[in-house]
Fold this sequence. Notes:
alpha/beta, FAD/NAD(P)-binding domain, D-Amino Acid Oxidase, Chain A, domain 2, 2 domains, 9-stranded mixed β-sheet, 8-stranded mixed β-sheet, FAD-binding oxidoreductase, FAD/NAD-bd_sf
Amino acid sequence: MSETYTSVSEDEAGFRDRTRLSFDLDADICVIGAGLAGLTVALEAARLGASVAVLEGRHIGWNASGNQLGTVMPGFALPLTDLIERIGFEDARELWTLSKQGAEFVRANATEENMPGIARSEGVLEVSNVDAGDRLISRLQMLNEDFDTEVEGWQVDRVREVLKTDRYFHGVYYPRAFQVDGRKYVHGLAALARRAGARIFEDTPVVSIDHSGIRKRIVTPSARLRATHIVLAGNIHLGAPLRRLSETLLPVWRYAGITAPLGERLHEIIAFKGSVMDTDGVDHFRIVDGDRLMWESPETTWAARPQRFAGAVRRRIRTIFPALGNVEVTDMFGGATGQTVHGMPQIGQLRKGLWVASGFGRQGMNTSAMAGQMIARSILRGDERWKLFSPFELVWAGGATGRVAGQLVGIWGRASSAAAGSLARYRERARVKDRQREARLAEANRAAGTGPRRPPPGVRPRLAPAPKPAVQAEERAGEPTPHEADVSR
């Protein structure tokens, strides 16, 4: 990887020359929020010929969009089986196809020509904390045959060949999935949008919105903007004017750490070159900068300094890969994502000319790309596939009570995952011991010559005595046992 990850943000490393909106402006589309979803809307709409203005209260990619591991693969946070149960097989398959198109949108943009230093690499491995080979087969069949997704099932031995730990069992390998430098991608996306004609204004918070009428009015501290369409892509940070929308999201802060260089021993223990994530959503990691490990694990529903979680990342690495020892975590970063109650993103039209693209917590980069493309094409080409998300309505996330509940659910989920993993490893060890014991017993029998023997030629084998007739058994049923006879004396 050509880039070195540090705690210095892209904004501090050369993006200080930011443009604020200081004059009144008219545009076809106003996007609020310069994260992955908002910038994708801006890029796609500008490419289709619309005039676009992006308003960002801070700076490009300052939150979760600029602080993520950069893994790109199809799917949603809601498991596929639950998605089918919720909306039916045909609509689920169409949504899955859209999620794959979102991943391909990222792939097309994330080239060295468009984004120097993007460091794209291929392959994602999803590993199981429990021995679930039977469920793996049915899942592979469904992804391959019904959802046209290229996947491979990996047996336990193959997983442990590339990941030297007994914590993981079976795996699902996505050869078409990939990863990029997430920080570079969000700024590269902004550069592409500007090149296409979009105007991006940073340090420009929205004070108020009037979304009535054909031309909507947006007020900022120093200027006003009018637009036919407004796209709300600000996640949980839409601010006071749209607080009710923000409250439909549960804020979750996810943190990641990057270790000091670990040398060749890292590649001996982790030989897989792409991203690795577990099926429970607890751990997510990959190698960066040649011999450093980037690891995402801690999660909380309350804001905190990222450095506070360095110890948690270090302990988690030692738990999964004890052979690495006590690694040094030199950099921590993270951001807040908005997670929905139903586990699907919020994509669609709230009222005529007012759109939302939000709720991308645990969804992946493909989903924000898909949302941006879909909304731009809905506005400019009449594409109505956003209605596939209509069953997933805006649901209040519960406020402070919801945060407490979310934190407890997260703790319970991690504890359940740990317990299930411990039980799976215990059963595996027990099976290994049983096989070893049987092998030793068989070897001892062979050495002693006590194995089953054939009778000499011409000698008929003796038959086991026939069981006593039932009548005899009944006659003896009334007789006292030897023990009873002793007692009667």
